[in-house]
Design a protein that fits this description.
By secondary structure, the chain is an alpha/beta fold. Helices cover 17% and strands 29% of the residues. A seven-stranded mixed beta sheet has the order 1-19-21-22-18-14-17, sandwiched between helices.
Length: 456
């Protein structure tokens, strides 16, 4: 991009692949930072994490019951139970452990360390629980009957060596690779990091994405509509899509069709944005203000204005191109970098379906690239599926068309949902995929195999 003012690439039609390559070429993964575990959820690891200690770190019981020697319970039955002397309690977190000798048992809780001398654990349900009666349903709480940690217990079943014992290191061994660099940290990964003692981890942070919708006709949901107004759905859809992609999303309420207002709003948002997304105002209408506003975002004050200009954004740092793409929906697109940090900005069309399809094709990959994900995880997965429809689907010559679809993985088929209009939000809400019709194809007969982009 060669100038600070927005460039309109004339009448040239850019391909979808060319535009995406341009976007990804300008996006660099965010710099790594050290974060607390919960703050790192959703982030990407930048280093391998190895296990410092075995997990579990000691042999422990997988049941509430009694730690015993196998020889002492061999042949035990309800008719001829093994009668053992209870030498104490072993609770989770116990320090000093009783030693289990011949003819003895220790009452043990789930997760508690196996005491010296014990070879197996018999569940409490295999015993009388120290009551002298029949099979126990559970243990009496220690606070209610501390004497049950002594006395005798009758064991009604035999136990093999190591029965109901979780061995030290049976999950992971010290020195094992716990998580590899490039892993996205979800709840199970956070749990593993905590279990091996990691309080912080080095990751690329989740990108901060600011979404702005433009249009004087837009009203926020919950407010009354007046003549000629509609509810702002785009900013909600795109903010939700940004979160789904892994970003931290900030939604800015609809900005009126006024270049100065939009320019000021964008400048204010730069401080918290790793990526800016606008929707609307990129076509050829008289009120398409995104082009107008971005021609001078961050420009120096005009002559005669006062102030030091310290808060103004350098105009040379703003580089925008507005293009027409060989696609439907989503023909008009804008892309560039803005502000002193060269923050990427993607300007999407305003029709709801055009906006959402454009997000999936261009913004989502940019977010994933900022996260530092490998190329294989930047784009949505796609499959091949057979078109199931009542009639042929038409497509404009020279345009790559993206039609909403419902994909059936079991049958390997996809069927259209709604029409091709770029305003049909209801149809979009019921679709789970996008059917891709290549540029050279103008008619797709039922039974034809298509590329299908999975949105779920």
């Amino acid at each position: 991009m060669s100038s600070s003012a927005p460039q309109d690439a004339g009448h040239r039609l850019w391909s979808v692949d060319e535009h995406l390559a341009d976007v990804l070429g300008a996006v660099r993964p965010l710099e790594p930072i050290e974060l607390q575990l919960l703050d790192a959820q959703g982030c990407v690891l930048v280093e391998d994490v190895t296990v410092p200690v075995a997990l579990p770190p000691f042999d422990n019981s997988s049941m509430d019951g009694y730690a015993v020697r196998t020889a002492d319970v061999q042949g035990a039955s309800e008719e001829f139970p093994a009668v053992l002397t209870v030498v104490g309690d072993v609770a989770a977190g116990s320090g000093e452990l009783p030693t289990v000798g011949p003819g003895e048992a220790a009452r043990i809780m789930t997760g508690a360390p196996l005491p010296p001398g014990a070879e197996a654990v018999v569940p409490v349900e295999w015993t009388d629980g120290g009551t002298g009666g029949g099979a126990a349903a559970g243990m009496t709480p220690a606070s209610a009957a501390p004497e049950r940690a002594g006395g005798e217990v009758r064991v009604h079943r035999a136990a093999e060596a190591r029965a109901h014992v979780r061995a030290r290191g049976s999950d992971v061994q010290a020195g094992d690779l716990a998580l590899a660099a490039g892993t996205v940290l979800g709840p199970p990964q956070v749990a593993l990091l905590a279990a091996i003692g990691r309080g912080t981890v080095r990751v690329r942070p989740r990108p901060r994405v600011v979404v702005l919708s433009t249009g004087s006709e837009l009203v926020q949901p919950g407010e009354p509509l007046t003549s000629g107004t509609i509810y702002d759905s785009n900013s909600f859809a795109l903010a939700a899509a940004a979160r789904d992609a892994g970003a931290i999303a900030y939604r800015v309420g609809a900005v009126a069709d006024d270049a100065d207002t939009l320019r000021s709003t964008i400048e204010d948002q730069l401080i918290r944005a790793d990526l800016l997304v606008t929707t609307g105002g990129v076509s050829v209408g008289a009120y398409d203000v995104v082009k107008e506003a971005l021609s001078s975002v961050g420009s120096a004050p005009s002559s005669g204005s006062e102030g030091s200009g310290e808060d103004d954004v350098d105009v040379d740092a703003t580089r925008m191109d507005f293009r027409k793409l060989a696609m439907q929906p989503g023909k008009p697109q804008g892309f560039g970098t803005i502000g002193p940090d060269h923050t990427p900005l993607l300007a999407l069309p305003g029709n709801p379906v055009s906006s959402y399809v454009s997000f999936e094709l261009f913004v989502r990959p940019a977010i994933r690239a900022l996260m530092g994900l490998p190329e294989s995880e930047v784009r949505r997965p796609s499959v091949r599926a057979v078109l199931e429809a009542d009639k042929a689907l038409g497509s404009p010559a020279g345009r790559r068309q993206f039609l909403r679809g419902k994909y059936d993985a079991e049958s390997g088929t996809v069927s259209p949902v709604g029409g091709s209009g770029s305003h049909l939000i209801a149809a979009l809400a019921h679709a789970d995929s996008l059917m891709v019709v290549p540029e050279e194809v103008t008619s797709v007969e039922p039974g034809t195999e298509l590329e299908v982009i999975l949105l779920g």
